[in-house]
């Protein structure tokens, strides 16, 4: 027998064949145990389910009352009951005509945030917040811990109007506007409670829909933001499990959840083996949920990697496999002989490097056999023999740690770990080793009389091969319906950090008394809520989509997984790895209705939910499912047809073409091969025919069908340097394209050729075409063209770079600053050319500014790309250009604010503008810096000594200071104050309090100051005619321009305003005009400024330096609004903006100033001069230190006299590429010449690059690292520099030689810096500075050592 499977990935279908064997299942039945009697749907009309159930029981029970036998009636969503019955009673009740099926109530098992980011689903993903807040996720699990931050209801309005449930959480349990409902299904009485004492339910609920909680961690491990997919969604809790989950309690949870009106059900519960539909309470409950439009998501099971173990098999349920993310938690064991082994555990304990005696086998016991002692069986260890020692257990899993913990051992090493790909929380220092390392440990144990070891605290490492299906994840094929592929999809389920019950043991050991708010857990239980959250996210954009449409969207847009890493392929991961963002726009969906499922069941002779007609055709493979599977007889020719129908949910007018990717063992045909749609919701049918000559036993063949509507993504194809000699780039690009595009001409696909300075092109390509191009030898790399964000003048004077210091006109007139941005406003005073001569003779550009654009002798060049003109229509480009090289303009201001002289760093330099739309504004998140290449100067944003603030005066006389650039004056008059929640007739309280678009009633806010709970409420306040707005703060260290009188306040101050609002009948307030104040703490890195460490090359420090980027006044197009509000009709010539976009041109201006003084200096020399003369910044208040500000704050005055510079040549970067794993051919393409390298260069580390800073990512135990550097003398010809180390850390730093003597300019001297340290904790930073000083120059380089698991590893080239 074999099987075919299909899934749509980006409008695609996969087909899979496999030979499988049948399984038969036996169930033991005990006398008078609980049985579930399922009777189908509830009858319409007058009907009392409970009375009917009791009357049936009266007929069949013997020697007791029906009331005594009845356990529960299911009477809200379907018709069934649970009762205690004998075997004879079961036989009698099974024969009644009203009864569909009778089966014993078995026990199921409870089957965990980097995971969302790993899936490309960031916190700032596009959302539909109003609809998301109306989505209710029903969680059938072990309860919930309501006090967790993940379930706080701050900012939530009342439950959705559709909610029909209640808060029946029992003892000591209170719901809120996040947890809107709770029911206890496991027990009743005064002690019943939905409070989670296991931790499992809290974990799964927070993964699906938990709030965003920053700084969540497990004893500093896996630190980050814990969040669910839909943080605004509501949660309803159905406690069906304590230690185990009984079937009749699970069915009760479904009965209630369906009737209560949830939208999605997530159930991380399952059995070790699958049961037929008629004996599966989850399949029964989910079917009735589907009838009501409710989607059920279930864990596939934790019985892998054996085949036929998937226990979730119904096609109306999404069955979820568990896979890894790019983050692994590992542990290390160090033996007494120095050998170190990497193992698996989540170990929060530190032994501080102390070597502990090792003990094993008979030496640990006085009452067990040696075999039992080896395995660390329960109660085998003698406490007096193991206390203070590390015990070795040959257990194949971590259960041996419980016995070691009970016996008070100091630690435990688990040998021959079965699951190497997952780490579990342990109750004592412990680590699990693979069989190979286990043998080495045993070899060491036998080789010495006094064996010792230490176990290190766990650490985080990168998992570059993710996603990979976890070994424990249950596999297909589907044993109940082999022609329905299961599992359906894969999602993160390994080492997931999420909310936990503080009264539950984090390790599962009852004697482990640690209490945590967030815990690391693994299982398909953890992957299941990821998919439930993604389903809720899709539903927030498509509220009316059916459960099958959402299922199809998730499956057909799943990311393809690597079959080379999965021997069981689609039986391990289904359609692939979930991709929530793509699922919102699948293009086509496969839908199945209740009738479709009934027909499928009837083809299996199953009358569970309905009677069947006498003659039924087809088989389960004919169900309109997003995947296609079939079993065939071994070694016999076969032809199989799959009829399918898709509904258009993409573009109204679209045409899809089929594309087959298949192996040689089968032939796949699609008829018709194209589908045309003229409207949304139109359906089209097709048939897939698969034929083969026969498959050997236990074999599997897969194929894929792609439906493509011609929607291409734009990709950039980089081909390195331009070849020398005769070469036509455009012709070459077109010929390459013609080879890979089939139905289009290459001219229609090509977007642009890059042919002036390097070799490459951009083109609209399908993923298949992109893959074909990537394999061409001429191509260095190919990547999607993404949309980058614009990262948005006292500042120069603050840096000590006054008008005199910046030089008189003419000093910089030969310097040309190229500005790649949103264009420029040529008429601005900052860009007029009074006093400028003609462009420099070296200029080879042109003025191609397009419509209504004229260059001059200041703006000497302009080009635009995909625009009609280089004229700036956003304001950003004019602002950055004037900051770098704008003219000196006196009395510039924003409505009198920040008044002074606006100027660039090099006012007499020329500008060439390139209209295409810094490091980034994604701070303060660690590792968020996006500009990482060492040949680029990466700039962080910091404050100056001038801040713009605003004040609000309340009617009670209290004055509160906030942030805004507010040019309006209310002239001291008090105006009525109103809360947005009280100023709406159309919206619910939550939306109104946030001042969502269209919510505020003009009649209720006109002439008043409105308080909003969302900073974006300013736009709605302006639209509705409010006189002013008081808003929450986004960043405390930055002020934004508002379109009306207003300001942003911190949370405590905003609460003070609300408290005042509620304390008086006539609240009033006055918002003052903004003012500039002195900021004595400057410079400080802005909170929005992106941080290191460098996520691509860990041993290159990024950012490089900091420059002013907060509240910067610079040129602005006068036709634009200074805010993003189209209703704001003000026009200004100069505006105040903040961002690394503002810091970047400051550094560019400094670089231009240095180049004017040293025209022949290389780019790396200029960069070194700026970095090594930067001001040291205060690290005492900063945990991110140099990862925030790099070398320090730029100092334009001293940068032109650095004394020494660190220079890098092209050959140095070639060595870097070599060390990063680039092939010789790729390097030659990039360099454009015959650059080569030796075999030894393969061992070159990035830290060996001659860079002005010296960072190193090291292992957290002891380390010794060395930096090699060379300085070039650009100061005094005869000079001697002595090395000085400045350090507050425990690092031991040695410089050899300690002095550098020069006899001439441009002379080079080399030195080495050696750093020794130990016991560095993960994510901690130790820093120091090396300063070379000759008495007149100080050349400072930061030294940064940080813990991050293993030392530098080569990233993928």
What does this structure look like?
By secondary structure, the chain is α/β, with parallel strands linked by helices. α6 (200-209) runs parallel beside α13, α7 packs parallel to α8 and α22 (876-885) packs parallel to α27 (1140-1157). The longest helix has 18 residues, at 524-541.
Physical arrangement of strands within the biggest beta sheet: 8-9-12-7-14-16-17-26
Q: Give the helix level as a range of percent.
A: 10-25%
Q: In whole angstroms, how far apart are the ends?
A: 43 Å
The major β-sheet equals: 8 strands, parallel
Number of helices: 32
Radius of gyration (CA) equals 34 Å
Low-confidence stretches: 1-30, 1350-1357
Shape: globular
List keywords for this structure.
1357 residues; eight-stranded mixed beta sheet; alpha/beta; single chain; 32 helices; disordered C terminus; eight-stranded parallel beta sheet
In short:
This protein has 1357 residues and is an alpha/beta fold.
What is this structure's SSE topology?
Blueprint: E1 12-18, E2 33-38, H1 49-60, H2 66-69, E3 70-74, E4 80-85, H3 87-94, E5 101-104, E6 107-110, H4 114-118, H5 129-132, E7 136-141, E8 167-168, E9 179-184, H6 200-209, E10 213-218, E11 221-226, E12 234-239, E13 245-246, H7 247-260, E14 264-267, E15 269-270, H8 281-291, E16 295-299, E17 317-323, E18 327-335, E19 340-343, E20 356-360, H9 370-375, H10 383-386, E21 390-393, H11 400-406, E22 411-414, E23 430-432, H12 435-447, E24 452-455, E25 459-462, E26 489-492, E27 496-499, E28 518-521, H13 524-541, H14 547-556, H15 570-573, H16 580-583, E29 588-589, H17 594-603, E30 628-630, E31 638-648, E32 654-662, E33 666-671, E34 674-677, E35 683-692, E36 700-708, E37 713-718, H18 729-740, H19 746-749, E38 750-754, E39 760-765, H20 767-774, E40 781-784, H21 794-798, E41 816-821, E42 847-848, E43 859-864, H22 876-885, E44 889-894, E45 897-902, E46 910-915, E47 939-942, E48 946-954, E49 959-962, E50 975-979, H23 989-993, H24 1002-1005, E51 1009-1011, H25 1017-1023, E52 1028-1032, E53 1046-1049, H26 1051-1063, E54 1068-1071, ...
Parallel strand pairs: 1-30, 7-12, 7-14, 8-9, 9-12, 14-16, 16-17, 17-26, 20-21, 21-22, 22-23, 41-46, 42-43, 43-46, 47-56, 50-51, 51-52, 52-53, 60-67
Antiparallel strand pairs: 1-36, 2-4, 2-5, 3-4, 6-13, 6-15, 10-11, 18-19, 18-24, 18-25, 20-24, 27-28, 29-31, 31-35, 32-34, 32-36, 33-35, 37-39, 37-40, 38-39, 44-45, 48-49, 48-54, 48-55, 50-54, 57-58, 59-61, 61-65, 62-64, 62-66, 63-65, 66-67
Helix pairs in contact: 6-13, 7-8, 13-14, 22-27, 27-28
């Amino acid at each position: 027998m074999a099987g075919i499977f299909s899934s749509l990935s980006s409008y695609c279908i996969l087909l899979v064949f496999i030979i499988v064997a049948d399984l038969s299942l036996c169930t033991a039945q005990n006398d008078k145990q609980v049985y579930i009697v399922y009777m189908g749907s509830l009858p319409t009309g007058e009907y009392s389910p409970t009375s009917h159930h009791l009357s049936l029981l009266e007929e069949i029970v013997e020697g007791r009352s029906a009331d005594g036998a009845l356990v529960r009636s299911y009477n809200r969503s379907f018709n069934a009951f649970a009762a205690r019955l004998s075997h004879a009673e079961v036989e009698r009740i099974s024969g009644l005509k009203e009864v569909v099926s009778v089966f014993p109530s078995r026990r199921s098992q409870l089957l965990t945030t980097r995971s969302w980011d790993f899936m490309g689903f960031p916190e700032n993903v596009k959302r539909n917040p109003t609809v998301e807040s109306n989505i209710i996720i029903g969680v059938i699990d072990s309860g919930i811990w309501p006090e967790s931050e993940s379930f706080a209801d701050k900012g939530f309005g009342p439950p959705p109007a559709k909610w029909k449930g209640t808060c029946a959480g029992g003892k000591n349990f209170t719901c809120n506007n996040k947890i809107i409902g709770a029911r206890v299904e496991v027990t009743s009485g005064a002690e019943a409670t939905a409070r989670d004492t296991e931790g499992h339910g809290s974990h799964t609920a927070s993964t699906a829909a938990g709030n965003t909680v920053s700084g969540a961690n497990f004893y500093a491990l896996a630190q980050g933001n814990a969040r669910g997919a839909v943080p605004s969604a509501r949660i309803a809790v159905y406690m069906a499990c304590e230690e185990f989950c009984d079937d009749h309690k699970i069915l009760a949870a479904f009965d209630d959840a369906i009737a209560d009106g949830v939208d999605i059900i997530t159930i991380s519960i399952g059995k070790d083996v699958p049961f037929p539909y008629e004996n599966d309470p989850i399949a029964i409950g989910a079917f009735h949920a589907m009838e009501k439009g409710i989607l059920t998501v279930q864990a596939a099971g934790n019985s892998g990697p054996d085949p036929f173990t998937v226990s979730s098999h119904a096609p109306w349920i999404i069955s979820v496999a568990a896979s890894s993310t790019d983050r692994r938690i590992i542990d290390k064991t160090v033996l007494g002989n120095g050998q170190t082994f990497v193992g698996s555990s989540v170990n929060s304990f530190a032994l501080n490097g102390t070597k502990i005696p090792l003990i094993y086998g008979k030496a640990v016991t006085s009452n067990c056999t040696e075999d039992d002692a080896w395995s660390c069986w329960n109660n085998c260890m003698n406490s007096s023999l193991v206390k203070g020692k590390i015990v070795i257990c040959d257990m194949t899993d971590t259960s041996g740690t419980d016995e070691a913990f009970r016996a008070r051992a100091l630690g435990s090493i688990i040998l021959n770990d079965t699951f190497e790909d997952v780490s579990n929380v342990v109750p004592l220092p412990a680590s699990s080793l693979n069989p190979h390392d286990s043998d080495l440990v045993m070899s060491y144990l036998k080789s010495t009389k006094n064996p010792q070891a230490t176990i290190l605290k766990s650490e985080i490492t990168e998992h570059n091969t993710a996603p990979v299906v976890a070994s424990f994840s249950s596999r297909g094929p589907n044993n109940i319906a082999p022609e329905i592929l299961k599992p359906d999809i894969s999602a993160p389920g390994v080492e997931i950090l999420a909310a936990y019950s503080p009264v539950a043991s984090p390790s599962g050991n009852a004697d482990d008394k640690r209490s945590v708010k967030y815990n690391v857990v693994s299982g398909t239980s953890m992957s299941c809520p990821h998919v439930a959250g993604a389903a809720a996210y899709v539903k927030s954009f498509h509220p009316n989509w059916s459960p099958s449409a959402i299922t199809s969207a998730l499956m057909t847009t799943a990311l393809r997984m690597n079959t080379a890493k999965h021997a069981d392929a689609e039986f391990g991961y289904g359609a692939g790895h979930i991709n929530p963002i793509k699922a919102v726009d699948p293009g086509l969906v496969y839908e199945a209705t209740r009738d479709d499922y009934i027909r499928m069941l009837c083809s299996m002779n199953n009358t569970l939910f309905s009677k069947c007609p006498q003659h039924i055709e087809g088989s389960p493979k004919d169900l309109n499912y997003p995947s296609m599977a079939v079993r065939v007889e071994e070694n016999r020719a076969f032809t199989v047809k799959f009829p399918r129908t898709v509904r258009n949910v993409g573009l109204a007018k679209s045409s899809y073409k089929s594309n087959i990717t298949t192996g040689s063992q089968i032939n796949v045909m699609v008829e018709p091969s194209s589908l045309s749609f003229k409207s949304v919701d139109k359906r089209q049918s097709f048939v897939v025919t698969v034929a083969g000559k026969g498959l050997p036993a236990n074999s599997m063949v897969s194929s894929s069908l792609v439906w493509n509507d011609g929607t291409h993504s734009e990709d950039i194809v980089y081909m390195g340097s331009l070849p020398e000699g005769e070469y036509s780039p455009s012709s070459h690009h077109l010929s390459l394209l013609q080879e890979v595009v089939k139905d289009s001409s290459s001219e229609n696909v090509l977007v642009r050729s890059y042919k002036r300075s390097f070799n490459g092109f951009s083109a609209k390509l399908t993923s298949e075409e992109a893959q074909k191009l990537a394999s061409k030898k001429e191509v260095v790399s190919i990547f999607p063209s993404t949309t980058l964000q614009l990262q948005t003048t006292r500042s120069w004077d603050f840096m000590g770079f006054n008008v005199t210091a910046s030089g008189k006109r003419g000093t910089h007139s030969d310097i040309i600053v190229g500005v790649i941005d949103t264009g420029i406003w040529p008429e601005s005073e900052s860009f007029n050319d009074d006093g400028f001569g003609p462009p420099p003779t070296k200029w080879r550009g042109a003025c191609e500014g397009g419509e209504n654009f004229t260059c001059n002798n200041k703006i000497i060049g302009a080009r635009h790309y995909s625009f009609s003109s280089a004229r700036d229509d956003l304001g950003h480009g004019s602002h950055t250009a004037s900051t770098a090289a704008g003219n000196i303009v006196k009395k510039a201001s924003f409505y009198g604010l920040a008044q002074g002289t606006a100027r660039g760093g090099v006012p007499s330099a020329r500008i060439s503008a390139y209209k295409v739309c810094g490091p980034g504004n994604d701070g303060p998140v660690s590792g968020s810096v996006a500009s990482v290449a060492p040949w680029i100067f990466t700039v962080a944003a910091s404050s100056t000594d001038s801040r713009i603030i605003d004040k609000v005066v309340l009617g009670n006389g209290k004055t509160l200071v906030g942030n805004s650039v507010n040019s309006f004056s209310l002239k001291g008059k008090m105006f009525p104050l109103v809360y947005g929640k009280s100023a709406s007739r159309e919206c619910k309280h939550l939306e109104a309090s946030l001042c969502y678009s269209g919510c505020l009633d003009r009649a209720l806010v006109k002439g008043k100051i409105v308080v909003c709970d969302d900073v974006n409420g300013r736009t709605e306040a302006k639209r509705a005619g409010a006189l002013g707005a008081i808003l929450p703060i986004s960043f405390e260290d930055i002020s934004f321009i508002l379109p009306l009188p207003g300001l942003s306040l911190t949370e405590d101050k905003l609460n003070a305003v609300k408290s005042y609002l509620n304390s008086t009948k006539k609240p009033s307030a006055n918002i003052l005009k903004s003012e500039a104040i002195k900021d004595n703490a400057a410079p400080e890195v802005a909170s929005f400024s992106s941080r290191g460490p460098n996520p691509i090359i860990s041993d290159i420090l990024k950012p490089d330096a900091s420059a002013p980027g907060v509240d910067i006044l610079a040129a602005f197009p006068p036709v634009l609004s200074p805010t993003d509000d189209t209703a704001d009709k003000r026009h200004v010539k100069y505006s105040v903006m903040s961002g690394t976009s503002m810091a970047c041109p400051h550094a560019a201006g400094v670089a231009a100033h240095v180049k004017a003084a040293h025209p022949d200096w290389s780019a790396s020399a200029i960069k070194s001069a700026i970095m090594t003369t930067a001001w040291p910044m205060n690290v005492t208040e900063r945990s991110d230190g140099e990862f925030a500000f790099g070398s320090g704050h730029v100092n334009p005055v001293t940068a032109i006299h650095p004394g020494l510079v660190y220079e890098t040549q092209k050959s140095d970067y070639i060595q870097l590429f070599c060390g990063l794993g680039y092939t010789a051919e790729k390097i030659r393409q990039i360099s454009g010449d015959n650059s080569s390298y030796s075999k030894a260069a393969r061992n070159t580390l990035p830290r060996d690059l001659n860079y002005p800073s010296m960072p190193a990512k090291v292992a957290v135990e002891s380390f010794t690292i060395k930096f090699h550097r060379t300085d070039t003398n650009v100061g005094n010809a005869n000079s001697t520099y002595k090395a000085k180390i400045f350090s507050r850390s425990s690092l031991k730093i040695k410089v050899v030689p300690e002095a550098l003597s020069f006899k001439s300019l441009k002379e080079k001297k080399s030195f080495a810096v050696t750093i020794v340290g130990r016991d560095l904790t993960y994510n901690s930073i130790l820093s120091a500075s090396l300063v070379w000083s000759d008495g007149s120059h100080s050349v400072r380089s930061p030294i940064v050592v940080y813990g991050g698991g293993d030392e530098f590893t080569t990233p993928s080239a």
